[in-house]
Amino acid sequence: MFAYIVRRVVATIPVILLVALFVFSLLYLAPGDPAAIIAGDQATPADVDRIRASLGLDRPFLIRFGDWFWHVIGGDLGVSIFTNLPVSHMIAQRIEPTVSLMCLTLILSLSCAIPMGVIAAWKHGTWIDRLVMMMAVFGFSTPVFVVGYLLAFVFALYLDWLPVQGFTSISNGLVPFLRNLILPATALGLVYMALIARITRATMLDVLSQDYVRTAKAKGVGQRGVLFIHALKNAAVPIVTIVGIGFAALIGGAVVTESVFAIPGLGRLTVDAILRRDYPVIQGVVLMFSFVYVVVNLCVDLLYTVFDPRIRY
Amino acid sequence: MDRRAFLKTAAVGAVAGMAAPHIATAADSKVLRFIPQANLANLDPVWTTQYVVRNGALLIWDMLYGVNDKLEPQPQMVEGHEVSADFQTWTFKLRAGLKFHDGEPVRAKDAVASINRWMARDSTMGRPIKQRLDALEALDDRTFRFRLNKPYPKMLFALGKSSTPCLFVMPERIAATDPFKQISEYVGSGPMRFKKDEWVPGAKAIFERFGDYVPRSEKANWLAGGKRINFDRIEWNIVPDGATAAGALENGEVDWWETPLPDLVPLLKKKAGVLVDIADPLGNIGSFRINHLHPPFNDVRARQAIQIALSQADYMQAVVGSDESLWKTVPGYFTPDTPLYTEMGGDRLKGPRDYDLAKKLLAEAGYKNEPIVLLVATDVAITKAQGDVTADLLKRIGMNVQYQALDWGTVGQRRAKKEPPAEGGWNIFHTWHAGADCVNPAPYIALDASGDSAWFGWPKSDVVQEKIAAWYGAPDLAAEKKAIEDLNKAAMEHVVYVPTGFFKGYQAWRKNLSGIVKAPFPVFWDVTKT
After folding, report:
1. Is B16's pLDDT higher than 60?
2. Which CA distances in Å does B94 have to B28, B108, B129, B297?
3. How far is CA B355 from CA A191, B192, B304, B305, B346, in A?
4. Where are the alpha helices (DSSP H) in chain A?
5. 3-class DSSP state for residue B10?
6. Angle A127-141/A87-122 helices, nearest 10 degrees?
7. A53 pLDDT more than 90
8. Of B165, B168, B89, which is closest to residue B120 (Cα–Cα)?
9. Complex ipTM, two decimals?
10. Residue A122 in contact with residue A231, Cβ under 8 Å?
11. DSSP character for B339?
């Protein structure tokens, strides 16, 4: 197992390098000029050229890539063109809001979606099943920003219970932290919830028809024990898979959610950097996200062995 | 209490705690929460010319002169000046007791270094001074002097100009930075100090009161007079989404929103706790920018065809909506309701639009249905609205329009290309100019018609350039007015660009704020919160 983990971690290095090259090439080919944005509308073309030269953007592709790559190997993601701050510092500033949002979304989604899926399977064909599936369809088909605006309108503006926007660090207290994050996490979690609820229901339906479940019932195991101990554990592998895959969707959704709720997270940092063509920041964030995604997939693979001891690496 | 009762009580308590409504406190009145027009991504007001940077810089750095609401430069850091009769020697003396945020006194050598850095980047007024400069020297700790080889009567206006880049005074060690490289220390002598440790670019910027700031004794008026800040902290919250910003203002989470979206203003006006009013009385002038280098617009008749067909009312309604108090037609290049405003030569922009005449002029100019490349920045509401109207206009006058939907970053790159449109160049793009930059030719780079070195579109007209020079040499207001009338007429005849109308924007704030003024920049001094 340890050797497998080491192999997988080492295997992430070429993946991340390929991502880095791909992103750098894409940004090089993409139109847009940070120097023109910096110089502003009143600048002359000569000013724009001088700024471009001072930023090193007039150098050939391979030299720029080589320079950047050399620094990345040394753990230096570079300095933002616009803020003059180290990219690693900017990412560090934004990690807490994004990680908090994702964790809360994950907790909310899993704690709601799995029981919903299990109950829908248990009450298969009844109004409860149809209600859960209807909610799942609603969750799938409603864009994050629409849900976000609706939640903000009802809970922040109409009822005045929660703030419309912003983020408070957990170091300032759990209640203010949750007050700021509960609406965005709900908005972001809806699609995720729908996805997990549907997969849980489908897998549970399959598992509940297995012989060992019938045996458990015949032995007199209670309904709760059958569902959550015998059936759910065996249905967990596909659920964990979808949780891992859905993580990418969560990253994409976080970009929108952070904009709607003005959360200073990595999603907004990415969007701002793309709009301004702040190449070092874009490259740094994409590298980080690709690394996280690879790690999440590794964790999913390892979790398989927990839920299904027959799986060995 | 059993387990279920305990859990219920705990859950209700937690929800009630989280759902507590916003309650104002006394400490709140010392903190101003402000949503700026854009993200404050950097803070070097010379390196970049973005208005949001200038607005933040106004808190951190002070200026030698500052304009009032009549656009007259008034002494700010300066105690007084002397000028020779030929306007070639200017001597300035700084006020006593000025200090930087690091505790160091402000000296004449700091002013000299700051002027040198600013002159290298300000193409409208700084470089003309530099071209005339024999010497700029600190005579003692409080006195510095310009010695010029040609007269420059507009010196005070240059030192106090509010259009970007403004002349902010920095410590010499910071001002010595290459003007094309960004500074990394934000030490000024303005009324607020910047909290770099709390700065999250794209999210928040914090300014803290500078206790040693010495305001002037006069009443504040725009950038002139005593800049008295009534807050311990000013927090800039970057809220990228307009609807969210409106909600935050309504909910009392922020106090002041610099640029509410026109679509949301009717809603904000109905909210009990919110006030809405015009932000900048000098407004903006929309721009239909034409590339003069390539057919068909290298022929003046094709450019005049646009003037004849273009309806400013259509553009303005697309930009700011049906609220007629927000816009007006402007058959001239200068800001309406300012001393030099004129409509001389603007007849082609007045009266009913004549598409047949426009088509005739296009034919005379040799237009044969070649694609017209229209660059439209669709991520900026004002340029998107103007671009859509232009696409329709060009079709109406029989042009083959190629609408290229881009983001502003890409338009910024493409507009610098001088190649023909078929090879990656362009024919038309849209922007707008702040009215404060269009009050006279000095800050008005878009009116420059010097050809290769002119602004994007590269108009070339010796007549226009002569008229601009005539304004610089005008000794009094009457002569300035005459020069501007001639300039407007010449620029309209040559069609340097086509103004699409004059429009204003709103600002919105909570009712518990008082002292908000209308200006081309947010004026934080004298604002109070209860």
Report:
1. no
2. 36, 7, 20, 51
3. 52, 55, 12, 8, 18
4. 2-29, 34-39, 45-54, 61-73, 87-122, 127-141, 144-151, 174-208, 211-218, 223-225, 232-260, 266-276, 279-307
5. helix
6. 160
7. no
8. B165
9. 0.82
10. no
11. T
Do the chains contact at B248 and A34, CB–CB below 8 Å?
Answer: no
Q: Which of B127, B386, B236 is nearest to A42 (CA)?
A: B127
By Cβ distance, the residue of B41, B124, B407 closest to A82 is: B41
Which of B42, B240, B416 is nearest residue A262 as measured by Cβ atoms?
A: B240
pTM: 0.86
In angstroms, what CA-CA distances link B506 with A186, B410, B520? Answer: 33, 28, 11
d(CA A24, CA A64): 9
CB B373 within 8 A of CB B426: yes
Q: What is the DSSP string of B135-194?
A: EEEE-SSSEEEEEESS--TTHHHHHT--SSSP-B---HHHHTS-TTS--------SSEEE
Q: What residues in B contact A162, CB-CB < 8 Å?
A: 18-19
Q: How far apart are the first and last CA of chain B?
A: 45
The pLDDT mean for chain B works out to 92
- pLDDT greater than 60 at residue B489: yes
DSSP-based helix, strand, coil % in chain B, nearest 5 = 35, 20, 45
Interchain proximity B239–A260, CB inside 8 Å: no
Distance set, CA B483 to CA B123, B124, B373, B441, B445 (Å): 21, 18, 35, 10, 17
Spatial distance between the Cα atoms of A219 and A217, rounded to a whole number of angstroms = 5
A100 vs A249: which has the higher pLDDT: A100
- Left, alpha or beta for A172 (phi > 0: left; psi -120 to 50: alpha)? alpha
Query: For the purposes of burial, counting CB atoms within 10 Å of the CB of B518, is it exposed (0-12), middle (13-18) or buried (19 or more)?
Result: middle
Best probe of the B interface among A49, A83, A181, A182, by most B CBs < 10 A, is A83
- Quote the tokens at residue A279: 């190449």
Q: Give the residue-averaged pLDDT of A155-172.
A: 93
Distance of CA B39 to the CA centre of its chain: 15
Query: What amino acid is encoded at B379 in this protein?
Result: D
Question: Binning pLDDT at 50, 70 and 90, where does residue B38 land?
Answer: confident
Q: Which of B204, B123, B196 minimizes the C-alpha distance to B158?
A: B123
Query: Does position A188 have pLDDT exceeding 90, yes or no?
Result: yes
- What's the confidence (pLDDT) of residue A277? 83
Phi, psi of A197 (to 5 degrees): -60, -40
- Binary contact (B253, A165; C-beta < 8 A): yes
B194 forms beta bridges with B207
CA dihedral (A148, A150, A153, A158) positive or negative:
negative
Identify whether the C-beta of residue B432 lies closer than 8 Å to the C-beta of residue B385: no
Rounded to whole angstroms, how far apart are CA atoms A266 and A276? 15
Q: In the structure, what pLDDT confidence band is assigned to residue A127 with cuts at 50, 70 and 90?
A: very high
**Nearest-angstrom CA–CA distance, B205 and A76:** 25
- Rounded to the nearest angstrom, the minimum Cα separation between A196 and chain B is 25
